[in-house]
Design goal:
The protein has 8 helices and 19 strands. It has a 5-stranded antiparallel β-sheet with strand order 6-7-12-10-11, with no helix packed on it. It is an alpha+beta fold. The structure holds uridine-diphosphate-2(N-acetylglucosaminyl) butyric acid. Uridine-diphosphate-2(N-acetylglucosaminyl) butyric acid binds next to strand 13 and helix 7.
């Protein structure tokens, strides 16, 4: 019989999910190095139980109060420069590194490429899974490759950028290979010098208001942190998963029909004759912004974010999300879908 020593039983996952819901895991294993992961994969509990790979828990909603299986919490640490050539720097970060801390460190070392993704809660290993994005940049823009372990065999595999099939909040790890691999490290291609991306939303307005004409890398990083803080809840204070829904992508024809009724509808043009519409705007127009009951609600400063004020369950959020979906669909004929992983 193969036993994985550091395994715990009946662990409350409340500290491990940013919604802050209580959910007890039958088994819980914290992974601090790759050897532990390899040992775990060959253990009997791993072979016999259903399992969930948990990273920062910033994009997961536990619907039930008991997880009848094994939660594998990835907490491997380490960052190193692998290669420097001209303007290019390749940096490897282990999956359990804290994402916002990693971005902060790269910015303080004057490395460009991930500054617009500052302050997104989560861990490095989860970032490629949903191709995190913000303020006009996505993870894929500075992603080189990642290493992952196949859970059924323990074999290592390198995924190139192409192999990851990145899309909007999407990758192969969320689709074809869902639940089959665990990402153990990510290599980034960063730059010693690059243009800053200031075009998105209110970045320029914020910089102007603060008397910054041509920002440094550090100033842009700090501006993004401040803009996010003003709009999004601090998960240490109010439970949330950031954006709960994805921004829906609709046809130009459907968009033009909507624009007749709502001339000010915000939108972003997408390739292939499609248009992306902000779900936050649709939810606000449907009257949900700031709605709350005792336990859960729709954040008053950003309607895309569902929040847990305490004392609620994942089920409360699911019920709220369903009501929002129905009312948005009734009003606009658009079905919005969750970005968050429902477990
Ligand atoms: N809007 C409203 N009401 C709201 C929220 C937004 O009318 O309550 C409108 C805004 O006025 C703006 C538009 O919708 O015209 C877009 O809003 P915003 O720039 O805040 O971005 P978003 O589309 O709501 C996306 C990402 C965020 C990311 C921001 C900034 C998704 C699902 N969400 O939100 O990502 O931080 O852009 O780049 O794509 C996350 O994934 O957890 C996340 C926070």
């Amino acid at each position: 019989m193969c036993i994985f020593a550091p395994m715990k039983t009946n662990v409350d996952l409340q500290p491990y999910n940013s919604f802050g819901f209580h959910a007890v895991a039958k088994y819980f294993a914290e992974i601090n190095d790759i050897q532990e992961l390899e040992a775990l994969i060959h253990s009997d509990v791993f072979k016999n139980e259903k399992y969930l790979i948990l990273s920062g828990g910033n994009n997961v909603l536990f619907q039930e109060e008991y997880f009848d299986g094994l939660v594998v919490y990835i907490n491997t640490k380490g960052t190193k420069i692998l290669e420097e050539q001209g303007n290019d720097v390749v940096v490897r970060a282990q999956a359990g590194e804290d994402w916002p801390e990693f971005v902060k460190r790269m910015v303080s070392q004057s490395l460009y490429g991930i500054e617009n993704l500052a302050h997104i809660p989560g861990k490095v290993g989860a970032a490629p899974v949903q191709n995190i994005g913000a303020y006009g940049m996505e993870l894929k823009d500075s992603f080189l490759q990642c290493e992952a372990i196949e859970l059924s065999t323990g074999n290592k595999r390198v995924f190139t950028k192409k192999g990851c099939r990145f899309g909007y909040r999407d990758s192969i790890f969320k689709s074809e290979l869902k639940g089959q691999y665990v990402i153990t490290s990510v290599d980034f291609l960063l730059k010693k010098n690059a243009l800053l991306h200031l075009e998105y939303g209110n970045i320029k307005a914020y910089l102007e208001q603060n008397g910054i004409e041509s920002p440094t890398l550090q100033q842009l990083h700090d501006a993004i942190c401040a803009i996010r803080d003003a709009k999004l809840p601090d998960v240490k204070q109010i439970g949330s998963c950031g954006s709960f829904f994805k921004n829906p992508v609709i046809s130009v024809a459907q968009f033009e029909a909507l624009q007749k009724d709502y001339p000010n509808i915000p939108h972003y043009d997408e390739p292939n004759g499609k248009v992306k519409v902000p779900a936050g705007w649709l939810i606000e127009q449907a009257g949900w912004k700031g709605w709350r009951n005792e336990h859960v609600g729709v954040y008053e400063k950003q309607a895309l974010v569902l929040v847990h004020y305490g004392g609620g369950t994942g089920h409360d959020i699911v019920e709220l999300a369903k009501k929002i979906q129905v009312s948005v669909e009734e009003k606009f004929g658009i079905r919005i879908s969750p970005e968050v992983n429902l477990v």
